[in-house]
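Bumping my old thread because nobody answered last time. Still need a sequence for this structure:
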């Protein structure tokens, strides 16, 4: 998607103000119920100005998705180094820490995308978003399965099977988490308990699939 040149020519601080107001509005109300009147009110601009930069609400929504994906790619995905850590479970743990650091840098982006994935209908999502996120997910999984120290695993199950089982477990955990959060106001959720649960889940996977002497955290 080509971002509106008119918007990019705006002063950086004005861009941030409009973007923040729009991210919060779509996060709180979803695409269908989001109000451009509330966006311009919080951003301190006229409605005519907003539609000068973005011709439709859908164009603004697509821009926010593109911006958010670019932010997450730069501040999170590009910092994941699958070669640095060879312990598969610790790779997931370090990825979680990197995600938390990126979240703290711009929570509005993560809250927005979380609301998009969890509460909005897939039919409302641009095809380029669906295909891009699928590629990103495939890239992450592929990187995680490389350079793994399989000597950490228990010896009575093949390493390839353990890697698959851990991957399937993480996918199931993600689906269950999405189900728990569905319908909730993402921006108002206290995520600390979920992070604690995530680390407990990783510890449990270690107890199940690692050699007993390797299960210490």
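Sorry it took so long. Here it is:
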């Amino acid at each position: 998607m080509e971002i509106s040149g008119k918007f990019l020519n705006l002063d950086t601080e004005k861009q941030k103000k409009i973007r923040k107001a729009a991210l919060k509005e779509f996060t709180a109300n979803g695409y269908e119920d989001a109000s451009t009147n509330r966006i311009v009110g919080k951003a301190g601009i006229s409605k005519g100005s907003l539609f000068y930069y973005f011709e439709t609400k859908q164009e603004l929504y697509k821009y926010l998705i593109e911006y958010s994906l670019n932010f997450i790619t730069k501040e999170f995905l590009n910092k994941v180094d699958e070669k640095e850590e060879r312990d598969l479970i610790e790779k997931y743990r370090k990825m979680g820490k990197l995600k938390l650091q990126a979240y703290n840098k711009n929570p509005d982006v993560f809250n927005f995308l979380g609301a998009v994935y969890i509460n909005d209908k897939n039919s409302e999502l641009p095809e380029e978003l669906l295909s891009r996120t699928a590629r990103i997910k495939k890239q992450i999984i592929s990187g995680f399965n490389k350079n793994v120290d399989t000597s950490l695993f228990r010896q009575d199950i093949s390493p390839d099977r353990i890697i698959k089982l851990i991957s399937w477990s993480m996918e199931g955990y993600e689906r269950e988490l999405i189900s728990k959060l569905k319908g909730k106001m993402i921006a108002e959720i206290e995520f600390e308990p979920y992070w604690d649960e995530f680390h407990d889940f990783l510890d449990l996977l270690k107890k199940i699939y690692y050699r007993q002497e390797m299960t210490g955290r």
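The chain has ten helices and no strands. Let me know if any region looks off to you.
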